[in-house]
Automatic annotation (TrEMBL):
Domain DEAD/DEAH-box helicase: 10-114
Xref: Gene3D superfamilies: P-loop containing nucleotide triphosphate hydrolases
Biological source species: Dendrobium chrysotoxum
GO terms for MF: 3'-5' DNA helicase activity; ATP binding; hydrolase activity; nucleic acid binding
Protein name stated in the entry: DEAD/DEAH-box helicase domain-containing protein
The organism's place on the tree of life at top rank: Eukaryota
Pfam family, one: DEAD
InterPro entries assigned to the protein according to its UniProt record, in alphabetical order: DEAD/DEAH_box_helicase_dom (IPR011545), Meiotic_Crossover_Helicase (IPR052247), P-loop_NTPase (IPR027417)
Length: 156
């Protein structure tokens, strides 16, 4: 996929798309993937001994953050932990990954206050910003919010 107006190349990395190789990954500006596929890639790439793909990551935008702490899906926690650990390694000090920004997005976060508190603990040195759009709708949990929670510098 290409956004020719801006010269941006996107790459889809899913379980349905196994034709991906290191050349495709390094030539893309944006990689779109599921958390589960990305987590598998972190294991594969670490085993194969190359970290080039990960060193180029400067922004991680995670959708469906309302699934945090879901006992059946821990991929988000695993991916964020692995990337944070990699970003602190000596090999990554001069790479974009050293200053990676994480943004969490969801259309259905019923407890955004709790999530904001959790992010404030993770990014102790950074202010957490919350932007929401409230709309009434028929939902078992009441008001749904479109929300973005991220370190303030990621929103600027």
């Amino acid at each position: 996929m290409k956004l020719p107006t801006w010269g941006i190349t996107c790459l889809e990395l899913t379980g349905d798309n196994e034709s991906c190789n290191t050349k495709n990954i390094h030539e893309s500006n944006i990689s779109l993937t599921t958390l589960e596929k990305f987590e598998v890639m972190t294991r594969r790439e670490a085993r194969d001994g190359w970290l080039g793909f990960f060193s180029d990551i400067s922004l991680v935008l995670s959708d469906e953050v309302h699934l945090l702490n879901d006992p059946h899906r821990a991929a988000l926690e695993v991916v964020v932990s692995k990337l944070k650990m990699l970003s602190w390694s000596k090999e990554m000090t001069s790479s974009p990954l050293a200053n990676v920004c994480f943004m969490a997005v969801s259309a259905t976060i019923p407890n955004f206050e709790d999530l904001t508190k959790m992010y404030q603990k993770i990014w102790r040195r950074e202010e957490v910003s919350e932007a929401s759009h409230k709309k009434k709708c028929n939902h078992e949990k009441g008001v749904l919010r479109t929300i973005c929670i991220a370190p303030l510098k990621a929103l600027v």
